[in-house]
Amino acid sequence: AEEFYTSIGHMTQLVYTEKELLASLDDYIQAEQNKLDSVKRSKTTFRINTFASDPETFLSHPVNAFKLLKRMNREWRALEMLVRSNVSDGFVSNLTSRSEDLPNEGDQTGGAEALLRLQDTYQLDSDTMAKGKLPGERAHHVGCLTVDDCFDLGMAAYQEEDFYYVEMWMAQALQQMQQGETLSSVDPITILDYHSYALYRQGDLEAALVSTKQLLAIDPENQRGKSNLAYFEYELAKPDRVEIIPVIPNKYLTAYNATVYKQLCRGESVALTPRRRSRLFCRYHDNHGHPNLLIAPFKEEDLCDAPRVVRYYDVASHKDAEVIKKLAKPKVSPLCFSVRKTVAACSRSATFSLLSCWLENNGYKVVKKLINRVGYITGLEMSTAEWMQVANYGVGGLYEPHIDFQGVNISTVFNIIHNTLLSERRVVFPQKEVKNPYEYLGTGNRIATWLLYLSHVEAGGATVFPRAGAFAKPVKGSAIFWYNLHPDGEGDHQTQHAACPVLVGSKWVANTWLHERGQEFKRRCDLQSSAEQGLTSDSQYRHDG
Ligand SMILES: O=C(O)CCC(=O)C(=O)O
Ligand SMILES: [Fe+2]
Asked: Where is each Fe2OG dioxygenase domain found (predicted)?
């Protein structure tokens, strides 16, 4: 397992599995019930012998003697068989046969880490999360986090030595206990122990002392509590004590421009100055009177001036999007992978999975139609474009900042899957799923990216450009487009972009990477000049990590 928690496509299977297991459990309970009823029924045939005190008189009657023999020979043995019979087989084998597909400890930890990452990116407080009051969400939320759940989240943070979140979740568990939640398997002593330790590790000795006193109020003889109390009091009494200011860690993302990335993900505009923003417009686009666009031009919106990123609305219908999502199922199309990506983030590495599928551009009617449309709109050659890549991100799913083109030295062969060179940290993803597509295609570098949104996302999941300061919220049926390369073929590192973690919802995108070959006379002049133009240094946002 260990690959469920970020692809909703995979997790839907778990919902069905649980439903089937529940039906199987009902069958099992019914079978046990039937068995018990049979046992009770046979008991009624065995009555206490009224002659028990005088067996001789009883046995002097031949019918009595025969019936006793028969009962002892057959009926008690039959009962033994009945009691020995095992009605749990069906249920147990049902469970066993599925155990391969069931989530394991690693999956659960991954789920906890995904929650912590979301909390960190979107700055959610633990009470909001515990009550499930997330933005954008509707009626589908069912469960609240219990004291045990909060404790587990605290423990997940503890495994990562992330004491800021240990403290937060242990405090949440305690608060819920105080509010009267009683059904928990962890005791307040354990929680307080972690709570005070987390405070201590963050350098907040006063608060750690308060927490330890709370622990001792419940259990005055607690050894650890007593020695911690003595230690904190001793430390606090030191005259030359230096106040340590707790640092809020940035563990859940790379240190490199993590702050800008997270601010952009929350929709806080950090990079586009008013002057830059004033240059962004909306218009109808017909690609200079292209015959296929004259009657129904597409609505084009500027998202960013440098690099120029534009969005086209309604380039895929609701139906088109649904058909593509149906095609992007491992059972439907051959080139679908559940890619497990390990991402080193700061001091830790997180593994997350992503469902991704390559759909042959000419292999499906709807794909062909949409790819042709990209050609009409951008004016670019589509015969050298890569196959459409469909990806699904579930809750917590993200894609860290990266560039789509092959790095500095184009002739260098990075043996990696599609675009997944995480530039700064040089994390190389597993290679087996897709061979080097550049070499395989022989069509040069990825000149441009067409990113089509196949779903809305209720909260989170935006595409952001941390260096350029651009933000694109997924809008179903719209596509964003940008050039990855400068007109001279050099990669434009300002195009570095990322997918923010999905907070609520399931995000589907389809990527089309256009290649250099065939574009020699096609690259549009207006886009070209604005890319060359760049920005004056006073208005350009730079983030140098
Ligand atoms: O999903 C997104 O918003 C961005 C995806 C992306 O950058 C990629 O697949 O290269
Ligand atoms: Fe990308």
From this structure: 384-516
Q: What is the ipTM of this complex?
A: 0.99
463 CA: nearest ligand 1 atom: 3
Of 98, 118, 143, the one marking the end of a domain is 98
Q: Are 429 and 417 in contact (CB under 8 A)?
A: yes
> What whole-number distance in Å separates Cα of residue 276 and Cα of residue 482?
17
Q: Residue 63, class by beta-carbon neighbours within 10 Å (0-12 exposed, 13-18 middle, 19+ buried)?
A: exposed
Q: Using the mean position of ligand 2's atoms as its centre, give its distance from the Cα of residue 449 in Å.
A: 8
Domain shared by 344 and 486, yes or no: yes
Distance (angstroms) between ligand 2 centre and the Cα of 508 equals: 14
Q: What is the CATH number of the domain that holds 165?
A: 1.25.40.10
Nearest atom in ligand 1 to 511's CA: 9
Q: Which amino acid is at 515?
A: H
Query: Percentage helix, strand, coil, to 5, in the chain?
Result: 40, 15, 40
Q: Is 511 in the pocket of ligand 1 (CB under 6 A)?
A: yes
| pLDDT tens, the chain, 545 aa long | 344 445 565 667 788 889 999 999 999 999 999 999 999 998 887 776 777 788 888 888 888 888 888 888 888 899 999 999 999 988 999 889 888 778 888 778 878 888 888 888 888 889 988 888 777 655 566 678 999 999 999 999 998 888 889 999 999 999 999 998 888 889 999 999 999 999 998 888 899 999 999 999 999 999 999 999 999 999 888 887 766 554 444 444 444 457 788 889 988 876 677 888 888 888 888 888 888 887 778 899 999 998 999 999 999 999 999 999 999 876 667 677 655 444 433 323 333 445 678 898 998 999 999 999 999 999 999 999 999 999 888 777 788 778 888 764 333 323 222 222 222 222 333 333 333 446 666 788 899 999 999 999 988 999 999 889 899 999 999 999 999 999 888 889 899 998 988 888 888 999 999 999 888 888 754 444 444 443 333 333 333 32
Residue 342 shares a structural domain with residue 474: yes
Q: Tell me the CA–centroid distance for residue 512 and ligand 1, in Å.
A: 10
Cα–Cα distance between 170 and 126 in angstroms, integer? 10
389, 408: one domain? yes
Q: Is the CB of residue 311 below 6 angstroms from any atom belonging to ligand 1?
A: no
β-strands 446-453, 507-515 pairing: antiparallel
